[in-house]
Design a protein that fits this description.
The structure holds 2 protein chains of 2 kinds.
Chain A lengths: L3 E4 L2 E5 L4 E7 L3 E9 L5 E6 L3 E5 L2 E6 L4 E6 L8 E9 L5 E3 L3 E6 L1
Parallel strand pairs in A: 2-11
Antiparallel strand pairs in A: 1-3, 3-8, 4-5, 4-9, 6-7, 7-8, 9-10, 9-11
Chain B lengths: L4 E3 L2 E4 L5 E6 L6 E8 L3 E9 L2 E5 L6 E5 L5 E5 L8 E8 L8 E2 L3 E5 L1
Parallel strand pairs in B: 2-11
Antiparallel strand pairs in B: 1-3, 3-8, 4-5, 4-9, 5-6, 7-8, 9-10, 9-11
């Protein structure tokens, strides 16, 4: 099945810094989503982005499907951005959602 | 608040027992997904229902089963529970069946003793 990797596994930032999180996948996909799991465990959908670029406030995401990666950009980070960021994909053949291992982000005041 | 509700929030039970987790999707959403999150396995997709029919199956054990009812709420049944089934179980919903933007419930934390 499709493999999903995320980097870096851990990231520590000072408030106000920018960051880029990466998601690599091993096969073509027809669905890719980014999620944020806050420190209280709640999962929140950030982007549905199988291709192209989207922006939502301080967050933006780009998926280059032909090169099998997606990037999540966080600008002017805030302490409330802390948590784990997951990307998840459905490959081009199946209907099974596969999550990456996540990037744990800690934003320090 | 995502609009997806899950009950109960916490559940403590013993090995060998059977439990039922309940999920109500957002109003208008036809798809329901179940996920398991554990420390060693990470987030795993279990199963998806669309408008009452099973749509996709992931890493769901044979001891687990699910269904979606005519009012679109869903239940996940876990039987012959083992210590390793202790995890956070999430339900999510989306409008259609293609896995587009999913909205997650708060989860049910299951502890098997």
């Amino acid at each position: 099945g499709i493999q999903v990797e995320q980097s870096p596994p851990d990231l520590i930032l000072q408030e106000g810094a920018n960051s880029t999180l990466r998601c690599n996948f091993s096969d073509s996909v027809n669905n890719l989503q980014w999620f944020h799991q806050n420190p209280w465990g709640q999962l929140i959908n950030l982007f549905y982005i199988p291709s192209g670029t989207k922006q939502n406030g301080r967050l933006s995401a780009t998926t280059v499907a032909t090169e099998r990666y997606s990037l999540l950009y966080i600008s002017s980070s805030q302490t409330t951005d802390s948590g784990v960021y997951f990307c998840a994909v459905i490959d081009g053949y199946g209907q099974n959602f596969v999550f990456g291992p996540g990037t744990r982000l800690s934003v320090l005041p | 608040d995502s609009g997806v509700t899950q009950t109960p929030k916490h559940l403590i039970t013993a090995t060998g027992q059977r439990v039922t987790l309940r999920c109500s999707p957002r109003s208008g959403d036809l798809s329901v997904y179940w996920y398991q999150q554990s420390l060693d396995q990470g987030l795993q997709f279990l199963i998806q229902y669309y408008n009452g029919e099973e749509r996709a199956k992931g890493n769901i054990l044979e001891r687990f089963s699910a269904q979606q009812f005519p009012d679109l709420h869903s239940e996940l049944n876990l039987s012959s529970l083992e210590l390793g089934d202790s995890a956070l179980y999430f339900c999510a919903s989306s409008v259609a069946r293609g896995g587009e933007t999913q909205y997650f419930g708060p989860g049910t934390r299951l502890l098997v003793l």
